[in-house]
């Protein structure tokens, strides 16, 4: 538990607010926590920061800024941030979520694509040893490599190897890409907390074959993580308000030893993607460029399914069994 033992300095931050630094006791070490603005000022400061830069939110970058600091605090709580945690934030924008992370005592690596916002957040948090700002497009940024190096630099070769967390009020247009990019990185990240379009949030956590939008990404999510829908966020909490409400989702990432046992992850997902290419087609047809229809029929019946099975009828475990049966020469 972080115990604030004294205010040590006070500084002005863009947007007219005052921030302060304090000293916290965090387990074995004392830690300086900086740049905390008063909670009720979050919306006002976001507006002022944008105005001071004459900044109009850029639609093509999905810039919908959070005005309700309680949402930021709830996201930080959902990520179970502890003082000293290393956190990757995607798209910090004006820094309202960054501020909540700083307040929780995290060290933050914030990747922002918009140079204007990167400059604004550098001005706001550059003085603070807790925040490193990187002006890059996240989808082209080598997240695993950079974060592994950052973990080693902070924690050395300690055992078990420490993992970072990811938190983001994500631009909606890169949601799927980010999920696909980050979920297989269970040796680097332990938890990923994302604020998404509510419809996407519900769809991503509901990976049962009965779900309307059961797709390869549903299989991918459950293969690499344990997803959980956390809470809904009404659209009027954002500036400008988006056309739809949002929702917060948490993914607890599995480590490699916890993945379902398949002989090759690559060939497993090749099979899953091929299966759904022919959605509503029987698997014996959609998989015929990988396995003969006879082999698929025989594998399906040997794992207790009908030889007419279609991809939307199979659970993750059944896909795993199908893959392993089809790829084990002795069982066919
Ligand atoms: C929905 S806003 C969230 C801003 C801020 N975190 C908040 O909660 O108010 C999304 C942010 O992501 C940034 N962004 C958009 N595409 C990005 C990308 N490919 N890589 C990194 N940042 C991106 C935008 O410039 C914007 O600052």
Automatic annotation (TrEMBL):
UniProt keyword annotations, A-Z: Methyltransferase, RNA-binding, rRNA processing, S-adenosyl-L-methionine, Transferase
Q: Which residues form the Ribosomal RNA adenine methylase transferase N-terminal domain?
A: 71-255
**Which residues participate in S-adenosyl-L-methionine binding?**
64, 66, 91, 112, 137, 169
Question: Superkingdom of this entry's organism?
Answer: Eukaryota
Q: Name one GO biological process term.
A: rRNA methylation
Give the family from UniProt: Belongs to the class I-like SAM-binding methyltransferase superfamily. rRNA adenine N(6)-methyltransferase family.
The protein depicted here goes by the name rRNA adenine N(6)-methyltransferase
């Amino acid at each position: 538990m972080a115990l604030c033992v004294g205010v040590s300095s006070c500084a002005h931050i863009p947007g007219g607010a005052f921030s302060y630094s304090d000293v916290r006791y965090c387990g074995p070490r004392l830690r300086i926590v900086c740049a905390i603005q008063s909670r009720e000022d979050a919306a006002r400061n976001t507006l002022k920061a944008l105005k001071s830069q004459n900044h109009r939110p850029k639609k093509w970058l999905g810039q919908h800024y959070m005005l309700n600091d309680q949402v930021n605090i709830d996201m930080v709580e959902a990520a179970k941030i502890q003082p000293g945690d290393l956190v990757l934030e995607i798209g910090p924008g004006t820094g309202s979520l960054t501020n909540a992370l700083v307040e929780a005592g995290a060290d933050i690596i914030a990747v922002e694509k918009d140079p204007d916002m990167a400059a604004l957040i550098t001005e706001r948090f550059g003085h603070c040893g807790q925040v490193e700002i990187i002006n890059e497009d996240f989808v082209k940024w080598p997240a695993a490599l950079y974060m592994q190096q950052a973990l080693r630099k902070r924690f050395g070769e300690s055992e078990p190897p420490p993992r970072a967390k990811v938190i983001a009020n994500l631009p909606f247009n890169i949601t799927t890409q980010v999920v696909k990019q980050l979920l297989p990185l269970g040796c680097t990240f332990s938890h990923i907390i994302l604020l998404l379009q509510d419809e996407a949030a519900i769809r991503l956590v509901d990976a049962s074959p009965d779900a309307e939008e059961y797709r390869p990404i549903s299989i991918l999510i459950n293969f690499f993580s344990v997803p959980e829908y956390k809470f809904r966020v009404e659209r009027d909490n954002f500036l400008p308000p988006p056309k739809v409400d949002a929702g917060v989702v948490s993914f607890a990432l599995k480590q490699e030893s916890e993945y379902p046992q398949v002989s090759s992850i690559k060939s497993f997902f090749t099979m899953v993607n091929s299966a759904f290419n022919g959605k509503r087609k029987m698997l014996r047809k959609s998989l015929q460029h990988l396995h003969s229809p006879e082999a698929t029929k025989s594998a399906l019946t040997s794992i207790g399914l009908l030889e007419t099975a279609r991809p939307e009828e199979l659970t993750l475990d059944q896909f795993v069994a199908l893959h392993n049966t089809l790829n084990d020469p002795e069982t066919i």
